[in-house]
Design goal:
alpha/beta; seven-stranded mixed β-sheet; globular
């Protein structure tokens, strides 16, 4: 039997570039940095000091008029190098000209700024006027209108609510749409019924366009004013400069009244409140410094505000920004911001980093640091490719100390960059405040802060809410836990939980809640915090398992870098997401390190589950629309490349705070318990349910699956289970798959179903009795099902979290009865004459085999996913929820082939919740899903929505279709006509008869119908009227069509699990696939090569 916990999914043929952009390099973009002078400081020098007049040309180019000839002459000389001097001395005349030029530039700038400000005031008044008219329009249209709102769910379900508003502004109308979409829809309906909606729609669009036009003009004017002011400050500094050294020039200390720093956070939006606290402390210590903090979600809802803030910003700080559209937008906005600091984000954005003379590579294409830095980096880390990023973090900590010994501005600016990164990476209020003050002091305005030491937290470690401080390793943590931990059961599963270090530093409340929740479910959590890039090292070197230790003891596996005191765990849970190797850095090379991750996880041979609160989406959007966009890539797509299973979203954002959903934590804990129990239970005691399919029902499809020979595959699977020690009954006879299917078909008799358990037992199992099979049936009462689908009565916001409304305990029952009627009165699919819900199958020892229930809806079963009002029928729910989980008590379920329907049931499109039917019915059951390897798009739905651990099987061998005798004869006759057109007259009738008999006449008609007309087909009677020329042309088309048919690839038979293709089939497949691209000798060499062939 396969190891359920370590099976890998298919490699998905998917592109992640749209969601996570950038060339193939890590997010630690300092590696891609190269030191070079930034544009404002590039100069032509012949002496030891900068010639300040070299700065004039770009500034003069930005002025539109107002410069005198003397200034233009200075600019011309500066741009041609004529203004340079071989010494630091200048004549009195030269200094006078410089001063005169500065004075004229300043005068022109003052005039320019005044004109721009007048235009800005006009644009602002136009915006206010348009806004006033919009508010009046909304008020006159919607105020006082009475309308009904009907509640479908929640405490006021099925009640009508009469409303009206005394006043209504445009913003209030928008808020109504966001907070109560059904209310706004009802209001619009009432206005439409009054005949006023058309007037509103005709008036509102021009007003909004007018407002938007003047808002855009205001943005441009504000940017132009700020640019002019910057030039004014620069010219003033140059005029006052008395030859100070380069360092003072590079510092560019601002002389304006206010310094503005804009911060935008991505995955750490939970830190926005911390950044705002830091901003207040900075403002108190350094008056005139304004720090504005935004989250990545503000990029969608507060665009105008962010644009305005960045237009006049002196410095920009961005972190953990990956969304492609957001990155492109921000990159454009920050181009004119003098200081740009971007940490651990998409390459394109990190390439914008600039501080003093230090710049990243703006192309984003550099694959590494300069040679000197590479040499230093080589001294850190283990030397393994996958460990380089961890070594780089070590370099970041010591880098400022090394660089302080190097002279020059470039080293100073790089050192400052590293120092600022150190403050940010360590996090916490004190470090963030110091980071901002240090930036201000070094580049914007003297603050006198010096270089305070970074408040350091260990890069990795373990913690527990009941213990003050951190543990150095998982081993030391478990030593403490065995003495003082809350769960003292020595048999309790031990689960490693990987946490974001930043969340630990900022003391996010959900961490304590998660640890205690897992303990309340009987698990021993091992909370391990990491930066993000060290996950694979922690799992590889500090965690082990009973399976790995046994393999090392038996000499089947090398110890490698595994520590002697590595902690033994039963499962690994990551709250990080992303790839195991590299964390967020791995997103830029999605899947490149997946083989390394596979090797690490395979050596542990324990379940690896990603379960995390959403850090990009909020709770409301998850419960309303499911998980989407970049959040789905982080939580699902990237970890799945490593082999992660059973992803469970644990909560999400409300505002900028992270909230946990207790009900989801319970789901995670119960699935972990079930996986661990499966491993610990001896094979002979494991109960396995194998589900076959019968879709479409009633047409002999029972026991079939796409591309798979189910009866034969069932035989090989059951034989393998028996060989592994599973209990398949007392009989040792070989199991006949066809007999199993026949027994299940016999149980479909409606007469037997109506009689209930007795009816199924009377049918028996037919020939399957020979190898020990017995009939199995259970009748589930409506009362039992109702109880199974009802949540505890005392559940409230603690269990459900801050979702938009609290579900009633019987919400699932009410939804089912809305679709199928009262459960007590239901007489439908698989219901007995007494109204019980019948679940039937056959049993072989501890292995139960049944047919997945029919959906009971017409058409494509996949449409259930998009029909939110539908539910599975009562017997479907009884089959999974009551029988498999409770009455039979399965340790695992196997969905046998492609494909079933449980993963397509209504619920969240992605990100199961307690309202998702696939989650409700599968519960905590480990689900092993046998799936054809050529259908990753649908198997991934089974994996994500149906908790399927995918076991891929080969597809049947392919071959060329060829032509059977009748078509071969037709081709021969057509060939004669092509070679000798005169033969057409004698062969016409024979060709047409063959066409009619083979059915090809409709596939390749004589003439295609035009504009809805039917195609023209030839018959024996009509062919006589066809000219020889037209028939020869038709014969050529038929011949070409037959060549296409003859060379088509087709599946030859059905695949049987565990059976490799024969040498003949393999040779035929290779010849067909490569055609003439592979010689017969090469095909034969491959076919005869020794080695295992895939099954």
């Amino acid at each position: 039997m396969m190891h359920f916990g370590t099976s890998r999914p298919h490699r998905m043929s998917m592109r992640l570039a749209g969601a996570i952009p950038g060339p193939t390099a890590g997010w630690i973009l300092p590696l891609a940095a190269r030191c070079r002078p930034c544009a404002p400081f590039q100069d032509n020098r012949t002496g030891p000091l900068i010639n300040k007049s070299a700065h004039l040309p770009p500034r003069l180019e930005q002025l539109r008029g107002g410069t005198c000839k003397a200034v233009e002459e200075v600019a011309r000389k500066a741009s041609t190098g004529q203004g340079s001097s071989s010494t630091i001395l200048k004549s009195a005349a030269e200094r006078f000209v410089d001063t005169l030029g500065a004075e004229n530039i300043s005068e022109a700038l003052v005039t320019r700024i005044a004109n721009l400000q007048a235009q800005l005031r006009h644009a602002h008044s136009e915006v206010e006027g348009a806004q006033k008219e919009l508010d009046e329009l909304h008020n006159s249209t919607f105020a006082g209108v009475e309308f009904h709102v009907r509640h479908e769910e929640g405490p006021d379900a099925k009640k009508d609510d009469m409303r009206s508003y005394g006043s209504m502004s445009e913003e209030e109308f928008f808020q109504l749409g966001r907070q109560d979409p059904s209310g706004r829809k009802a209001l619009l309906g009432a206005v439409k019924a009054m005949g006023q909606l058309a007037h509103y729609e005709a008036a509102v669009v021009p007003l909004r366009m007018r407002r938007k036009r003047y808002q855009s003009e205001m943005d441009s004017l504000e940017t132009a004013i700020e640019d002019a002011r910057r030039e004014q400050r620069a010219v003033t500094r140059e005029a006052e400069d008395d030859g100070s050294d380069d360092e003072e020039v590079v510092r560019r200390l601002t002389t304006s009244d206010t310094v503005r720093i804009v911060m935008i956070t991505g995955f750490e939006s939970f830190n926005v409140s911390l950044y705002k606290k830091a901003a207040k402390q900075v403002a108190r210590q350094c008056p005139g410094v304004q720090v504005l903090a935004f989250s990545d979600r503000d990029l969608n809802t507060k665009r105008y505000e962010i644009e305005k803030a960045l237009a006049g910003a002196d410095a920009f700080f961005g972190s953990l920004l990956f969304d492609f559209d957001q990155v492109e937008w921000v990159k454009i906005l920050i181009e004119k911001v003098p200081i740009r600091l971007v940490f651990e984000s998409a390459l394109e954005l990190m390439g914008s980093t600039q501080i003093g003379t230090f710049q990243m590579d703006p192309s984003g294409k550099s694959k590494g640091p300069p040679p000197a830095v590479k040499k230093v980096l080589s001294l850190f880390g283990s030397g393994r490719e996958e460990d380089k990023l961890t070594g780089y973090l070590s370099f970041l900590k010591i880098g400022p100390k090394l660089l302080k010994f190097l002279p020059g501005n470039k080293a100073r600016d790089l050192r400052n960059w590293l120092q600022i990164y150190g403050y940010w990476n360590e996090g916490g209020l004190e470090n963030v405040t110091t980071m901002l003050l240090y930036l201000v002091d070094q580049y914007l305005r003297p603050a006198g802060v010096g270089t305070p030491a970074v408040q350091v937290t260990p890069p990795t470690g373990c913690l527990h809410p009941d213990h003050s401080g951190f543990f150095e390793s998982p081993a030391k943590y478990l030593d403490w836990y065995r003495r003082s931990g809350p769960v003292q059961d020595s048999t309790a599963p031990v689960v490693a939980v990987l946490l974001y270090r930043k969340h630990v530093i900022t003391q996010q409340p959900y961490i304590e809640q998660l640890v205690h929740a897992l303990e309340s479910e009987g698990l021993v959590p091992v909370p391990i915090f990491i930066n993000g890039v060290e996950a694979h090292q922690i799992v590889r070197d500090q965690l082990t398992s009973a399976s790995e230790q046994a393999a090392i003891a038996a000499g089947k596996q090398q110890r490698g870098s595994l520590r002697r005191d590595a902690a033994a765990v039963d499962a690994v849970v990551s709250t990080i997401g992303f790839p195991l190797v590299g964390g967020p850095a791995g997103t830029m090379e999605g899947g490149r390190q997946a083989d390394i991750a596979k090797g690490i996880l395979s050596s542990k041979n324990v379940p690896y589950i990603v379960a995390a609160p959403l850090l990009i989406q909020d709770m409301a959007s998850w419960t309303r629309d499911g998980i989407a966009g970049l959040q789905s890539v982080v939580l699902y797509s990237l970890p799945e490349l490593d082999g992660a299973i059973d992803t469970v979203p644990l909560g999400g954002l409300v505002g900028n705070d992270i909230f946990l959903v207790q009900e989801r934590v319970q789901r995670l804990a119960s699935r972990l318990q079930k996986w661990v129990n499966l491993r610990r239970t001896a094979p002979k005691d494991r109960k396995i349910a194998i589900l076959l399919y019968g879709f479409p029902p009633g047409v002999g499809a029972t026991g079939t699956a796409a591309l798979l020979n189910v009866p034969k595959s069932l035989e090989s699977t059951l034989a393998a289970l028996r060989a592994e020690g599973y209990d398949l009954g007392a009989s040792s006879e070989s199991i006949d798959g066809e007999a199993v299917v026949a027994a299940l078909v016999a149980q479909e008799s409606q007469r037997a179903v109506s009689r209930g358990v007795a009816g199924i037992e009377s049918v028996g199992v037919g020939a399957a009795a020979h190898f020990g099979a017995v009939a199995s049936a259970s009748a589930v009462s409506p009362r039992t099902l109702r109880s199974a689908l009802t949540y505890p009565a005392d559940w409230g916001s603690t269990e459900w979290g801050p979702i938009p409304y609290l579900p009633d305990p019987d919400i699932l029952v009410r939804r089912m009865e809305k679709t199928w009627g009262d459960l007590d009165c239901y007489r439908g699919i698989q219901s007995t004459a007494k109204g019980e819900l019948l679940v039937n199958g056959i049993q072989l020892g501890n292995v139960w085999i049944g047919v997945q229930p029919a959906l009971g809806v017409e058409g494509d079963p996949m449409r259930l996913l998009f029909e939110k009002d539908l539910t599975p029928h009562p017997q479907y729910a009884a089959f999974y929820r009551q029988f498999l989980q409770h009455e039979f008590g399965a340790d695992a379920v196997v969905h046998f082939g492609m494909h079933g329907t449980v993963e397509w049931l209504p619920g969240a499109p992605l990100g199961n919740s307690g309202m998702s039917w696939s989650d409700v019915l599968l519960g905590d059951l480990p689900n092993v899903y046998v799936y054809a390897a050529n259908n990753p798009s649908e198997s991934i739905v089974a994996k994500r929505r149906g908790y399927g651990t995918i076991v891929s099987h080969n597809v049947p061998p392919y071959g060329r279709a060829g032509l059977y005798k009748q078509l071969s004869e037709l081709k021969s006759m057509l060939g004669e006509v092509r070679d000798d057109p005169a033969a057409a007259e004698t062969l016409k009738e024979a060709i047409v008869k063959n066409l009619d008999a083979s059915g090809l006449a409709k596939d390749c008609p004589f003439r295609m119908g035009q504009q809805g007309q039917e195609d023209q087909l030839l018959t024996v009677d009509s062919v006589a009227d066809v000219s020889a020329e037209d028939f020869v042309e038709y014969a050529s088309r038929l011949y070409a069509y037959l060549q296409v048919v003859e060379n088509r690839l087709f599946s030859e038979g059905l695949h049987v699990l565990g059976r490799a293709p024969s040498r003949e089939q393999l040779g035929q497949y290779l010849s067909a696939f490569f055609d003439e691209g592979l010689s017969p000798q090469a095909v034969e060499a491959v076919v005869q090569a020794p080695g295992e062939r895939p099954a």
